[in-house]
Structures are given as C-alpha cells and as structure tokens.
Records
---
Amino acid sequence: MQKQIRRAFYYIQDYLMIFIGTILYGFGFNGFILSNEIITGGVSGIGALIFFATGIPVSVSYFLINIVLLGFAFKVLGFKFMIKTVFGVISLSLSLSFFEWLLAGIPIVKGEPFMAILIGGGICGTGLGLIFSANGSTGGTDIIAAIINKYKNISIGTGLLLFDFFIISSSYILFHDIDKIVFGFVEMGVNNYVLDRIINANRQSVQFLIFTQKYDEIKERILIDLGRGCTLLHGEGGYSQKPTKVVVLLAKKSESVTIFRLIKEIDNQAFISQSIVRGVYGEGFDQIKT
C-alpha cells in the first residue's frame, strides 16, 4: 500500500513539474518574445511564423502540428513518454492561449528587445528544463531531440539547437530584418544554456554503491525497469562480519531520481553512495575514444 501511495506521489510530482514548466514557457514566450516580434525555435517558433504571416494564434498552430508529431513519440519513445508528452502539449497549448488572451500581444518590456529576449529566454529555458527533468516533453522538435538523445550521446539542448537554427533563419522571409534573426539566435542560446544547466547536462554520469539485503530484487528492477546492467560485489560487514553483496550501478545523472525512487520502493533502509564519475565508456554511454 505504501509503495502504491509513494508511486502515485511521484507521478503527481512529475505532472505538477510539467505543468509549472508549461506555465513558465507560455508566460516567457508571449510576454517577452512573441510580443517583440522575435522568432524563437521549436514548433512555437513555427507557430510564430504562421501567426505573423496569417494571424492564426500560436496556440492553435502549435497544437495542430503536434497532433502529427505525437505519432512518432508513441512509436519510438514508448507509451510512458507518450502520456507525458500529450499532457505537456495540451498544457502548453492552454498556457499559450491563456497568455495570448491575458497579455493581448503587449510586451512586458517595451523598447528593449535585447533585454526582453534575455529575460524571455531564461524563463522559457527554465520551463523546458523543469519539463525535461520530470521526463516530460512539450512535443514538437522536443520529440525529435529526445529521440536523438535516446540513441546518441547528444544533449537535448544540442539537438534543439540544430532545428532552431533553421526556423529562426526563416524569419528573414517575413521581416527582412537581420536584427530580428540575431535576437532570435541570442534567445536560442540563452534558452538552451538554461535548459542544459537545469537538466544537469545529460552526458554526466554517476556511480551508485547500494548496500542492501534485498539486492536480488533491486538487481531485477534495474535490469527490467531501467534497462541497465549492474554488478554484484561480494563483501563482508565490518561489524557484523556477515557476508553481503553490494550493487554497483553506473547511470546517467538525469536517471538519479528514478533510481532513488526504485530503491526506496524496495528497501527504504538501504545505504546508498552516489558519486560523479569523470567518464564512462561502453554500451549505453560514451564511445571509447583513442
């Protein structure tokens, strides 16, 4: 019963984090970026291009585009990712729509586009960082970047960078203004920098030493739930002098919260040591460099 309550709490916590992240993004995007006629990256940037060309609200085009892209999320990233992505898409669509109505296109910072994109980029990057930290997504190019991140050792921020470059450059067709493109690139840099900082740069790895009497159950859950291997070391208690086993696990730092949750569900009395490692090479991590 306690495990079910704890698991439900974690789900609620994740969805609350995604919701807060979408609120931050919707506010930062409408209040500082779109209102200053700056094109940002992602599907929201595509929506901004459509808005300035046709007048269709960003929230509408954002939602419609994601209906198509969600099919890829289900096929490649799995059902769990799909649920959180659908929630993220709906939540962000509503957030964009709400702030479109509330702010009515009036910029919060007037006459200072550079200051506006710095603030807006920071707020949007924080929102995306919270969403990805909860293993969620806002859809769009986030889906493509998350797919790349799953199979390649490329951070989500770097993946988004490649797509955003093309979208922002396309704004020249509408405005014929190099300054707006430069502002868009600055916003993109701030956004992705903050995003990578919050999700602790996916490339960083950690090592767990797990001391527990329920090592067999924890080992099985690591293999099945996380899809990662682990090692059992034979040891002896210094005080009890009883034989024991230590579970050694190497994982991405972004997986730390999931690992702690898993261990706590099985043995909340387990003794755990977590340390950051400088480099991990092999299957599931970096390639061996020569």
Note: The radius of gyration is 22 Å.
---
Amino acid sequence: MSDTSLPPSLPPQRADVIVGNDLLPDSVSVVAKPLSLFERVYNLGWIRRLAILVALAAIWEIYGRTLNNPLLFPTFTDTVTTFAGAFVQGELPRRAWASLQVLLIGYGLGVVLAALLTALAISSRIGTDFLETMTSMLNPLPAIALLPLALIWFGLGNGSLVFVLIHSVTWAVALNTHSGFRSVSNTLRMVGRNYGLRGPAYVMRILIPAAFANILTGLKVGWAFAWRTLIAAELVFGVSSGSGGLGWFIYQAKNALDIPSVFAGLFCVILIGLVIENLVFGTLEKYTIRRWGMQS
C-alpha cells in the first residue's frame, strides 16, 4: 500500500524554464518611446493639410513676385487683399449665396432622381438595364454641352442652371449607389431576409449601411461636378441675363481687366469647395463609415 501521508512529488524544474512566481512583475518592463513634438504634430491630419496649403500659397506668392505682372498673375497677397475688400463690401457673400441657392436646388433634385433610378434598378432587371444604359449614354456627356438646349427649353434664368446641375449630379450619384448595392455580400443579404426584412426596411437597414461608402463617394463626386458646372454655366448665363453668382462676378472682373478680382472670385470658389469637402462630407464620413470601421 502506498503511503498517502507523503506529499505528492513535484516534477523537477529545468534551469531554462521559469515557472510559478519566479517571473516577478517588476522583472518585465514595457519600453514606451515618447513621441517627439514633430511626430505629435505630424500625426494631426489638419496640420498636414494646412502645411500643404501654406506651401502652395508661398509658391504662388514667389511666382507672382518673380513674374511681376499683375495683369497676368497677381500675387497671393494682392489676391487675398482684393478678396477681403470684396468680402467686407458684401459683393462676394452676395454672389456666393446666389450660387449656393441654385446649387442646393439642383443638387437636391439630382440626388432625389438618382435615388429613384437606383430604387428602380434594384427592384427589377429592366430597371437595372435602364439605369446602366442611361448612365453609359449620359454620364460621359458634359453638362456644358447641354447649355444651348437649356436656353431653348427653359430660357434665361435659374431654370436652365438647375437643369444642367441635375444632369451633372444624377448619373454620378446613381452609378456609385448602384455599384455599392451590387457589392453588398450575400451573407448580409441573407441575414436581412432571415430577419424578415422586405422592401424599404430591407434597403434602409441592410443595403444603405453596407453600401454607404460608395454612396458617400457618389455624393462627393456629384457635388464636385455640380459646383464646377454651376460656375461655368453662370459665365454663360450671366452674359445672357446680366445676373448671376460667382461665375458672373468673375466674368465682370475679366471684362474690366481686374485680374486680382478674377483670382479673388476663383479663390472664393476654392474656399467654398474646401469647406464643403472637409466640414460637411468630412463630418459625415467621420460619424458613419469611419465610426462603423468601414474605412481607416
């Protein structure tokens, strides 16, 4: 019989193996290298973008001073001074607001039309064929090419501007949205079906969140197309009707050979583009696809 009073034998410890409490917490340390001030600043995205803008402004200023011909290329300082003067006088804010009002109408109608076409496309095969055919036909067609027809059909004024804006927005938004819906995995589709989702609920809870990265890209591309189309169209319609927004402001400054004012108008167009891109779409992207882990 074995003697149960004896303690159980322990396996022999090897010299190259540390077991039990031999590994003390204070014997292990994590080396954390502190970031330098430059690295901390460089990790801020807005600082990097600001540095790029400052570098471009410096190049602009140096080239303008080297050329020394304000009639051809004013310096950055002259442009900012002219911009500030027109802004304080109220000319630029009034022109910019006139352009943005028309833009919002055309952009909104274009997005609604794109949503209807995409809904038709995902509901039937004939709808898909119709959207793909119309997109392949009309998406490569420049909106500026429709200006003569817009003048004939809608006359002078905002109606013609809205028409070309709808054309600029619709196909870019519809194409990206439809591509996003088609890229949704079958697993997510089956999950939605298993939960009994049908119709609008299925689209809102499954398709749109899964395809929102493509949808947001389409909205951004449509905005860019609409903004540059509007400025170009205002140059033509402003000449015809004697009114308009930033495009008409630029055209008037060009006729008066006030080149700093031309650059100030272009500078205002760029600033509005930066604000919309970073403030509106950047915020929307931050609280949707980045928050959902769909984009780093």
Note: Residues 91-286 form a domain with the MetI-like fold fold (CATH 1.10.3720.10).
---
Amino acid sequence: MTSPFDRLPSCVAGAMQGDIAVLRLSRPDKRNALDDTMIAGIEMFFDGLPAETKAVLLHAQGEHFSAGLDLTELTVRKAPEAIAHSRNWHRIFRQIEFGHVPVIAVMHGAVVGGGLELVAACHIRVAERSVYYALPEGSRGIFVGGGGSVRITRLIGVSRMMEMMMTGRTYDADQGFAIGLSHYVMEDGKGLEKGLELARQVGVNAPMTNFALIQALPRIAESDPDSGFVMESLMSAIASTEPEAQARLEAFLAKRAPKVLRR
C-alpha cells in the first residue's frame, strides 16, 4: 500500500497514525542539521498532507532534535544567494505556522539555531528533560535566517533573544519552559507519547476553531486594538454559527458534554 510520504528524501520520514500525520527528522549522524534537502523534505511533507489530517506531530531521530543550520551551506554562497536561501526557509516555515492543522513539536537534546527557528513555527512545543536551547549565531559571525528574529522574539522578547545570540548562552528544559520556549516538560522518553496525546486532543477541536487559532489569533495579537477587536468579532461570529459549533453547544447545554475541570 502506497503512502502519501513515499517520495520524501531519506533525511525525513512521514507516516500517518490514524488522522495524525507524523514527521520525523532523520539525519541523526549530522545531529539533524538542517540542509537544503531536509528543508525541501519538510516542504514536501506539508504539501502532501492527506485531506483527513487533523494535526501534525514533529519529532526527530537520534540523540538530538536539531543542531541547526548545516553551516557548510553558508560557505559557498554570495549575498543574493544567501538572501534567497533565507527567504526559502521563511516560505516553508510559514506553511507550518499558517497551515490548516495544528503542529506539535517534540524536542530532545540540542534545539539550536535553525532547529529552534523550526519549532518556533509550531503551535505547541513539548520538551524532554535532555533538551538544551541555544542561539550561537554571535560566535559564528552570522545572524538568524529562518524567521527566528520574528518568531523566537515573540516567544521570549527582544532583550533575551539578543542576550542569547550575543553570549551563546544555553537554556535547559526548565529554563526554556520558564521563558516560553516550550509548553510542557516531560521526562526523557516520554515526550513522543505526550505529543501524540496532544495531537489527538487538538485534532478533535472544531475545524473552524483551529482555523481561527492558527490564522486569526496571531494576526489579532499583532494588529492595533481596534482592528483586532473587529477581527475577533468577525471570527467569533463565523465560528459560533458553524453547524458543528451549534451541535457542540447544544450538547453542553443538554449536559451531554463534559464541563471544564481542574486537572
């Protein structure tokens, strides 16, 4: 039986677990450093998501999630080529951030440079205790190029982003959680199980609600207040008048749906 991911390059692997699509970075001998082939494979994976996909789970093979950009690719480029290379990452990571399904990243080991830029484009991030984060661009004489100056700065703020890049400081799993680099911290070996649980949980949300959270919420947050309020009203009206939303509301009012409880 053929898979929609059969044509992916060997440095990435895709599979379906029910209606959850699973993407694995598979270049462990290079600590899953992101080269052009791997980036193209990530694009092919998201381009080829089956229509029934409800969420995506992203993880990595080997001891590390990703040690970042494969720096050998920067040594042969002139400025125009380097700009095009960066913009290609922007385009592909935007597919993740503003796609049609939630993306959950499960991280372990090194989440460095471009690897951190990749997970910053995801919607939910699960860290195992082995995780360490770093942005060593300052010591390499380079600058982030995969959208990190926008996405990571949103997560942790300009001052902390600047300090990380200037000093090369690393953050462990608990420190990363405290500043917003992850939403969950799990014991080593437990991250994938948690990620799959979350993928299934968010996958059963009403599609219009997930659409609003992925597409509208980030834009509302970055707009001026009055524009944000208008967009919120429109999105709220569209979502709440969907037939599925009406059915879910009726089930709750009829006491057929669970209430929110402290967990």
Note: The two ends are 41 Å apart (CA to CA).
---
Amino acid sequence: MKYPKPLKKGDIIGVCAPSAGVNEGNHARLELAVRNVETMGYRVVVTDSVRRSAKCVSADAETRAREFMSLYTNPEVAAIIPPWGGEFLMEILPLLDFDELSKSEPKWVCGYSDITTLLFPMTIICDVATLHGSNFMNLGAKTIHESDLRLFEALREPTIIQRSAARYGGYTKAGEDGLHESLYALDKPSKWKSVHASDREAIEGRIIGGCLDTLGRLVGTKYAPVVETLHKRYWRDGLVWTLESCEMNAAEIYRSLWQLREVGWFEYTNGIVIGRPDGYSDTQDFTLRDAIDSALGGLQRRTLESGMVSFRVPVFYDADFGHVPPQMQLINGAYARIECGMGSAVVMQGQKVFDGKGKYE
C-alpha cells in the first residue's frame, strides 16, 4: 500500500468538486473554511467549478474529471479535499486515467459520502491510501470541532490513535451572517455496540469501506475489483470493513450488506464496523440490528486458504463515523487495530502491522 507523504505546513491543499458544487448561499462558509485552513499554515487552491452548482453537480463530467486530474498530477499539491459529497460522482470514473494516477506521486484524497465513489477505486486500483473523513466544508465554522481537526493529524502522522466520542448528534443552524459558531450539536450519549455482545473485542486488518449508498453501485464494475485485486494483495492481513449509510432504511441496509456478502467482498474479513446511519428508519418492525444480524451475524473468516480453520467475524455498529457527527478519520488501506468494549472504542491506524499491544512491528 502506497502512502502519500505526510502533510506539512506550507503545503498546498487543493479543493475541487468531483460531485456537488457549492451554491451561492454557502459561499461564505466555503470562504471561512479557506481562511481557517490558511490560518493553520497551509495554502489552498480552489478550482473554478467549486463555486458552481446546477443539477446536483458542480460542472459537466469532463470538467470535473479534468480538474481532479490536474490537482492530482500537480507535484505542488499535497492533498485534495472536496467541499462535500453529492449524487453523481460516478460520472467521472470513466474519464479518469487510473494508469496515470497509479504512476503519479501518491497524495491524499479525503472526504466521505459520494466521495467514497472516488476513494474506493483509488485505494484498490492504484494501491494508494485514501482518507474517509471530513470534507472541506466541515472546516467552515468559527470554531472547528476537534474531530474535524483530526483530519490534519491523520494526514501528518504515520500513526494515529482515536477514541470514541462521548456524545453524538446533529448540525446547528447558521447565524444571520450565514456562518456557524460551531457545526455540531452533540446531545446524545455515544455507545458502540457489538453484534456478539462480547464485553471486549479487538480486530486487526486493513481498513476499507465508505458510504453504502454509493459503494453498492460499484459492485460488478471495473472500479471495484475487490476479489480480483484487493483480496489477492491483502488476504494475509485481512480486511476491516468500515461502512456507513445515508438515506437508507433497515431493509435497504440489509439488501446492500447481503449483496456485498454474496459477491464475495467479505471473504477475507477480520471485522466489520458500521457507522451510525443518517436519514434512517426501521422497515415496519425490522430494525437496524435485524439488518446487521441477518446479513452478517453468521459471517466467518477462513484463517487458512484450505478453509479448514475459521473464526467468527466481530461486527460493531453505531460507531463514530459517517454522516452523523462527530466522525473519526479512517484511512482506507491503513493497517488498523480496533478495540471495543463497554460501549467505547479505540482505533489505531498506521502504515505497518501492530504487534498486538498497540505498537508497530
């Protein structure tokens, strides 16, 4: 797995909009995010299409692909952080030159929601680490939440340790100036849950995942060669799937997880962590726990290629990442150790393999 160089002060962060752009009503928030990041000591370059928005996108697919490629192949740009997700990032995938991306000096690409549609193929096809975490607009508040500031820690440090949040919640309303004092209102106690009701469990492996709403659309396309490529490279390490959803009810979450299991994506899985779903509802009396139990409850991992030895795959849910704030910064391709117990969790990520005691070999 290729890791981009650690981000350092003075580096250029590129902002492009491969999916949705920023409408005029949110320009003030975008400008505040730019000022905040520049105050931290970084330089910011915003492409032409970011401040446009029509028909759910910032520009036509060709323009969006060209702007992304121009940033990624620019040796002076160290990281790319889109403003936010959207709906139709998949339109640019056929227009991206993945051969050129693979040969280019790796750099950080960050985001969540529809940005999964870009991060997932890049990690698997280009074998480069990407970051499922804060979008650029998450930095557009007068006081940036500590969970979003950890974005920069993840981009700077070879290892990062994060602990589960005490509380979670929703978004605040902007003031009269269109800006937020702080983005989040965290008013509910956070508690990670285990499907298998173990007091304590730990999982290790290479993180991969993202937003189920868009990830599932990549199944069967050349942009998601999980079985053909990812499994062949990292079956010895095993995978830790980190999955979240937006606007999916319990039935749709079950259907999506069932699909991923049936196409073999969970074959070399050491653990699965599911973030709190946003825009969620039960389907009649069928709940989120029912969906997870039905799709993943009996999942086992083979420890030998012969399949003679297997173990039960741990599954955690209601974890602190995704569309419900606050969220952890999760590095696709990083080796991770996740310890969960009594409703809290510790997530350790880095370039190398842990020795089982939270240290790297």
Note: The CA atoms of residues 1 and 127 lie 5 Å apart.
